[in-house]
Design brief:
Layout: H1 4-25, H2 27-36, H3 57-62, E1 76-81, E2 91-95, H4 96-112, E3 120-123, H5 131-143, E4 146-149, H6 155-165, E5 169-173, H7 174-186, E6 197-201, H8 207-217, E7 220-227, E8 230-238, E9 245-247, E10 252-257, E11 271-277, E12 288-294, E13 296-297, E14 309-310, E15 315-316, E16 321-323, E17 326-328, H9 330-338, E18 343-354, E19 357-366, H10 375-390, E20 395-399, E21 414-416, H11 418-424
Parallel strand pairs: 3-4, 3-5, 5-6, 6-7, 18-21, 19-20
Antiparallel strand pairs: 1-2, 7-8, 8-9, 9-14, 10-11, 11-12, 12-15, 13-14, 16-17, 18-19
The structure holds zinc ion.
Length: 425
């Protein structure tokens, strides 16, 4: 493969090419580079990337539908779009080579998870405009494994297909995987399921949730990352050591910046992930602000992969909760719950304002075997640990197992009711 030096050299030469390309082909980027006073030939070292302007999600939306597509129309073979919960959809375009690169990155992910041509992959993610279904499909086929392209379907159908075809790999979101795992346990079908690996992506999930999915299904799960703007899922995956996510640095240049000052963070320090595409032809992006909060993990991984790592995604900068002057992310709640035995992985955070004071309540499920008489003691434990680690004291309410809602879609966990109260006053 390549060592660190080869990788940096390759990144620099691809960065120079990308900047020259967007300057020549994209009126949008030419204007931005001119405004920032940078000429493509001034990019002489990797650090020079910090001289380039950022690209934001708002700019992507402002240039809807296809103003950021810069490859000639005859070379563009596909588009994908994200659901666009707020405002217009975010669109991404692909040339034949972009699709090939994406398939190879996806195949690398499967390979890192120990999946090979002899495997059958049950894909529960949605096919269509969304990148997940077809993205996984590309990787499965590039790898030479067999795809079972189910997409979202009734639970009975998922289970029947898995049993009948002896599927060995599951590709899904974490909420869908948890639903499936709980259902397999409820029906006592674990012995009839041949799953050994799950590749799980599209939303942040905790170690506790991962352990639960692994234990219920008797499998090893891997965390896959990606987003529509950057191909789709498959731009990185954690290896068997599960100490952070290896990302494909030959195609993508990652930086971590402070989300407020936008200055680069030191390796190891948490901040916003900013990505520059190094290979993309149809719609390259320069210093795209992903809004994801993570950190670069310095040093090599025990697996000896030449690919660098970031930490698992802690949250999105938009999800940051400001509570009594402290900035928090839902991922920190996961961290606390991971350390307390007896509580499950399902939780909600409710923030209200009562008599001018902000009150935070964490509602968390107990594990199935825990006696309700222990709930109070368990709650006190969570509260104490939260206070020690994060510096604020929440109310903690322990509820019964299965009491909190589950969904195949992303689960809403944070209910900040402070603004709603202001609005109704
Ligand atoms: Zn590794």
């Amino acid at each position: 493969m390549f060592d660190g030096n080869d990788l940096s050299n390759m990144q620099l030469s691809k960065l120079q090419k990308t900047v020259a390309y967007v300057y020549a082909m994209s009126p949008f980027y030419r204007k931005k580079l001119d405004a920032a006073g940078v000429r493509p030939e001034e990019i002489q070292a990797l650090e020079d990337v910090t001289r380039l302007p950022f690209t934001t999600k708002e700019e992507l939306r402002d240039n809807y539908p296809d103003k950021l597509m810069i490859a000639p129309e005859r070379d563009v073979v596909r588009l994908h779009a994200s659901s666009g919960t707020t405002g217009k959809k975010t669109v991404s375009f692909y040339t034949k080579k972009d699709i090939k690169d994406w398939g190879q990155m996806m195949a690398r992910c499967f390979h890192m998870a120990g999946v090979g041509p002899q495997d059958r992959v049950h894909n529960t993610t949605g096919y269509g405009l969304w990148t997940a279904g077809v993205g996984f499909q590309l990787g499965i086929e590039a790898l030479g494994a067999m795809a079972v392209p189910v997409g979202p379907a009734p639970m009975d159908q998922h289970i029947e297909l898995m049993v009948d075809f002896g599927t060995t790999v599951l590709a899904s979101t974490s909420s869908a995987a948890l639903l499936l795992a709980e259902e397999v346990q409820r029906r006592g079908l674990r012995d009839q399921i041949k799953l050994r690996v799950a590749i799980i992506g599209s939303e942040r999930w905790s170690d506790k949730m991962r352990d639960k999915i692994n234990n219920l299904l008797g499998i090893e799960s891997f965390d896959i990352i990606g987003m529509t703007e950057l191909y789709g899922p498959g731009i990185g995956l954690d290896c068997h050591y599960h100490q952070g996510i290896h990302y494909w640095a030959d195609h993508l240049l990652f930086e971590i910046v402070d989300p407020i000052t936008l200055q680069p963070c030191q390796p190891g320090v948490q901040g916003e992930l900013v990505v520059t595409t190094l290979s993309k032809e149809a719609m390259p992006l320069i210093r795209y602000r992903t809004r994801d909060i993570t950190r670069l993990i310095p040093g090599p991984c025990q697996c000896n992969s030449p690919f660098p790592r970031i930490d698992r995604i802690l949250g999105r900068s938009d999800d940051m909760i400001k509570f009594r002057g402290v900035n928090m992310f839902p991922g920190q709640v996961d961290d606390v719950l991971n350390k307390v035995e007896g509580v499950g992985c399902e939780y909600q955070i409710v923030i209200e304002r009562q008599q001018g004071k902000d009150i935070m309540t964490i509602r968390v499920e107990a594990e199935e075997a825990v006696d309700p008489a222990e709930f109070e003691k368990l709650g006190a434990k969570v509260q104490q640990l939260y206070k020690t680690r994060i510096g604020v004291t929440p109310m903690v309410e322990i509820v019964n197992h299965y009491e909190l809602p589950r969904s195949e879609k992303k689960v809403k966990r944070v209910f900040d009711q402070r603004n709603e109260e202001l609005a109704t006053r």
